[in-house]
């Protein structure tokens, strides 16, 4: 990540809006207190592509700002499951948050499409025929899956791909179940942390919601905030995509963001 984007002062988190301008009356804006990057992040392979952002002030849930559940380490998201992605992406004419349904793909199959470059911290979603995908400008964004309980769980974070919506080139996402323990460790290590209790697994434990206007990623917790926002703007490799996202804990906002410092980069 370029040094400029490691400075919390150049970032801000917006919630409660589906407008790219952030001018909706329901919009809540928060500064970023600190950025915690994964120590094992690999810029060449995009492995461990996640960072946690601590909000400078608490962010309360309301009608427009609701949480998504952080999955347990053993939470199973099967291949073929239909999930949702959202973002403003590479459509400058679109000023309203977009969403789309994608399908989780078999890990071995997807790895073969990318010359076996995938690691256990990655998961693919999309369609073999292409046409629907996240794209540049969506970096760090959420891949959320609804369980039978009606709760939404954060399965992935927009990370990389080749092109956008191309056949046999599905989007690649950071796999949250493999990064969950580090996320919780990063949050608990902050002086702002007071208490955070998350069940080990199950789709019936945490509360979350998504609306037709878009998805707000958050995890309930106690005072202080951590939140996830999109990955940093691209300075090179403009063809691939990483996508915007976030987890917001009540007064903790765990901000899960793709960390590749490029907007969904190519390999």
UniProtKB/TrEMBL annotation:
Stored InterPro entries: Peptidase_S1_PA (IPR009003), Peptidase_S1_PA_chymotrypsin (IPR043504), Peptidase_S1A (IPR001314), Trypsin_dom (IPR001254), TRYPSIN_SER (IPR033116)
Annotated TM spans: none
A molecular function GO annotation: serine-type endopeptidase activity
Listed GO biological process terms: proteolysis
Entry keywords, A to Z: Disulfide bond, Hydrolase, Protease, Serine protease
Gene3D superfamilies: Trypsin-like serine proteases (2.40.10.10)
Origin superkingdom: Eukaryota
Stored SUPFAM superfamilies: Trypsin-like serine proteases (SSF50494)
Residues of the Peptidase S1 domain: 1-188
Protein name stated in the entry: Transmembrane serine protease 9
Origin organism lineage: Eukaryota, Metazoa, Chordata, Craniata, Vertebrata
Gene: TMPRSS9
């Amino acid at each position: 990540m370029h040094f400029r984007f490691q400075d919390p002062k150049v970032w801000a988190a917006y919630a409660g809006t589906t407008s790219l301008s952030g001018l909706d009356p329901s919009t809540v804006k928060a500064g970023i207190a600190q950025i915690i990057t994964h120590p094992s992040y690999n810029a060449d392979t995009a492995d461990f592509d996640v960072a946690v952002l601590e909000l400078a002030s608490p962010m309360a849930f309301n009608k427009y700002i609701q949480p998504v559940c952080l999955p347990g380490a053993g939470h199973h998201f099967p291949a073929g499951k239909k999930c949702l992605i959202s973002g403003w992406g590479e459509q400058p004419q679109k000023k309203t948050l977009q969403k789309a349904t994608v399908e989780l793909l078999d890990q071995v199959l997807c790895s073969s499409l990318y010359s076996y470059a995938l690691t256990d911290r990655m998961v693919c979603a999309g369609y073999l025929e292409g046409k629907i995908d996240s794209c540049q400008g969506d970096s760090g964004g959420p891949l959320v899956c609804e369980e039978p309980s009606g709760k939404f769980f954060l399965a992935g974070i927009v990370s990389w791909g080749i092109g956008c919506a191309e056949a046999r080139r599905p989007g690649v996402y950071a796999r949250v179940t493999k990064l969950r323990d580090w996320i919780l460790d990063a949050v608990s290590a902050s002086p702002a942390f007071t208490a955070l209790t998350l069940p080990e697994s199950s789709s019936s434990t945490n509360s979350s919601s998504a609306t037709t206007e878009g998805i707000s990623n958050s995890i309930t917790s106690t005072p202080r905030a951590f939140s996830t926002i999109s990955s940093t703007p691209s300075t090179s490799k403009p063809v691939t995509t990483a996508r915007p996202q976030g987890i917001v804990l009540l007064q903790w906002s765990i901000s899960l963001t793709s960390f590749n410092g490029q907007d969904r980069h190519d390999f």
